[in-house]
């Protein structure tokens, strides 16, 4: 029962969610996140939940009090210079999540990555810990690693999403396949027996393209979104977040949602 109640924290009565990941500070440079607590305060009216690292979970506890809070349990640094891409590696687990009073945990699940075996073990161990802790797990399932949109094919995303559900994820976070139709994504969602939410990826710099992607995802049966950089790196974070909220929770058209930016 506690697990279900924790999961409900992220969803409104329409069973949809707008989640804002602000966990990037351990992985990439984060222009736009200089004041994360102020950002949370500004966006709380149109955000249902947040993904945070442990330090921010502690520091922002007061402003996160009424929201669903998900602890990022791994580090997912991409390749930088001569430093190799090691994929994802676990840092925290249920003990730290409970200490921070969060409602869920999130870990990467990279398929086809050179470190795939260790990544799968990390994800499975986290799910095992979550059983006794009654904390839901969101697996962020992607092929090869972060920032590989050319590899986000229908086949690869479908495989990654299904694998995450099979491992025991409560929610699967994944990318909308590059160039896919709503019908193609619907087939992926229907083959995954837990809620699917769609990530935003790198800042697009194209409001219409972002909202069209989210509209297609929702039409295909997604339960919501987890969009970070396309919000907090936007020139108008509150307005684009409001537009995304309108598409997810109010079934707004793209043209209607774009009015939030005027």
Say how many strands there are.
10
Strand order of the largest sheet: 1-2-3-6-7-8-9-10
CATH topology: TIM Barrel
How many domains? The number is 1
Global shape: globular
* Percent in strands: 15-25%
- Which architecture name does CATH use? Alpha-Beta Barrel
Structure description:
The protein is α/β, with parallel strands linked by helices. 49% of the residues are buried. It starts with a helix and ends with a helix. Strands 1-2-3-6-7-8-9-10 form an eight-stranded parallel beta barrel, surrounded by five helices. Strands 4-5 form a two-stranded antiparallel sheet. The protein has a single domain (2-261), classed as TIM Barrel (Alpha-Beta Barrel), CATH 3.20.20.70. The protein has eleven helices and ten strands.
Please write out the topology:
Elements: H1 2-8, E1 17-21, H2 36-43, E2 49-52, H3 54-59, E3 68-72, E4 74-75, E5 89-90, H4 94-99, E6 104-111, H5 116-133, E7 137-143, H6 154-167, E8 171-174, H7 182-190, E9 196-199, H8 207-219, E10 224-226, H9 229-232, H10 237-250, H11 254-258
Parallel strand pairs: 1-2, 1-10, 2-3, 3-6, 6-7, 7-8, 8-9, 9-10
Antiparallel strand pairs: 4-5
Question: What descriptors fit this protein?
Answer:
alpha/beta, TIM Barrel, globular, two-stranded antiparallel ribbon
């Amino acid at each position: 029962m506690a697990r279900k109640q924790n999961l409900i924290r992220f969803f409104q009565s329409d069973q949809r969610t707008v989640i804002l990941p602000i966990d990037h500070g351990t992985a990439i440079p984060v222009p736009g996140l200089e004041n994360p607590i102020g950002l949370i305060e500004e966006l709380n009216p149109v955000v249902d939940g947040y993904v945070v690292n442990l330090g921010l979970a502690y520091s922002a506890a007061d402003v996160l009090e009424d929201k669903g809070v998900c602890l990022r349990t791994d580090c997912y640094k991409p390749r930088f210079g001569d430093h190799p891409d090691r994929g994802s590696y676990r840092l925290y687990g249920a003990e730290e999540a409970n200490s921070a009073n969060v409602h869920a945990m999130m870990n990467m699940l990279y398929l086809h990555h050179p470190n795939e075996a260790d990544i799968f073990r990390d994800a499975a161990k986290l799910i095992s810990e979550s059983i006794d802790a009654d904390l839901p797990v969101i697996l962020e399932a992607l092929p090869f690693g972060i920032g590989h949109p050319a590899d986000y094919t229908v086949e690869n995303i479908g495989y990654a999403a299904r694998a995450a559900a099979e491992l025991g994820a409560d929610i699967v976070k994944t990318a909308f396949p590059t160039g896919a139709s709503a019908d193609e994504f619907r087939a992926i969602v229907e083959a995954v027996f837990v809620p699917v939410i769609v990530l935003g990826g790198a800042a697009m710099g194209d409001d219409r393209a972002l909202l069209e992607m989210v509209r297609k995802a929702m039409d295909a049966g997604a339960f919501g979104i987890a969009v970070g950089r396309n919000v907090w790196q936007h020139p108008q974070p509150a307005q684009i977040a409001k537009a995304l909220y309108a598409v997810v929770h109010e079934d707004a058209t793209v043209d209607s949602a774009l009015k939030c930016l005027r």
